[in-house]
Design goal:
This protein has about 220 residues and is mostly beta strands. The chain has 1 helix and 10 strands. The protein starts with a helix and ends with a strand.
């Protein structure tokens, strides 16, 4: 009798736990804006000014209960300057990605989730040494696979507030073509290929806050 009562309680609990229903439209996005300065006195004193913006809107569909598949645009722009050497760097990364996301209901409107994504981006940077004068440019592309776990809270019926551990694990490949224009007017070309395996765990505070909308199918 006690065993039967336990089974009934577990069954009722699974029914009462909110589920993300199949057919819902998934909308979201992440925005990051940063600006900071650093000063070094060894061996020569200089000040580095850095700023940037990244934005990644996403759309997807709940293909089955608590599972989302979709795509994202990936846009990022950066700028840095170093004084008194008058070094400047401007760059951007533009691309897209596909993702699959699984939610696990915890009850009380809380969910655990895991997000796996495959991304591809074009890469461009221009480095200028004003005093030389000389500069070089980098053009290429980057491909990476990332894993992002997190916790979501259902604020309203269609609105979720998320806290994620950004890029817990990232595996990537990057290829760049470099054109180096020196002060004598000569151009030197080179190609680089880089492979990377990276984890944000233990590197500062790699937490990311985001909002997601789940619009149920009518």
């Amino acid at each position: 009798m006690k065993i039967n009562l336990l089974v009934v309680c577990l069954y009722m609990s699974s029914i009462l736990t909110a589920q993300i229903q199949k057919g819902a439209l998934f909308l979201g996005g992440d925005l990051q804006i940063y600006s900071y300065n650093t000063t070094s006195t060894s061996p020569n004193q200089f000040t580095s000014k850095n700023s940037g913006t990244s934005f990644s809107p996403s759309i997807g569909w709940v293909i089955k209960e608590n599972m989302v598949v979709g795509g994202s645009l990936l846009l990022s722009f950066s700028n840095s300057e170093q004084e008194p050497t008058f070094y400047q760097n401007k760059g951007n990364r533009i691309g897209a990605g596909i993702f699959i996301r699984k939610y696990i209901p915890l009850g009380k409107s809380f969910y655990l989730f895991g997000n796996a994504a495959l991304n591809g981006q074009s890469v461009y940077s221009k480095y200028i040494y004003v005093q030389q004068p000389s500069y070089y440019t980098e053009n290429g592309y980057a491909i990476n696979a990332v894993l992002i776990p997190g916790v979501a809270y259902q604020v309203k019926k269609c609105l979720f507030l998320e806290l994620a551990l950004n890029n817990l694990l990232s595996l990537g490949y990057e290829r760049k073509n470099t054109d180096d224009h020196n002060s004598n007017g000569n151009i030197y070309k080179s190609v680089s290929n880089n492979y990377s395996l990276y984890s944000s765990f233990g590197n500062g505070v790699p937490l990311q806050v985001g909002l997601r909308w789940m619009i149920a199918k009518k």
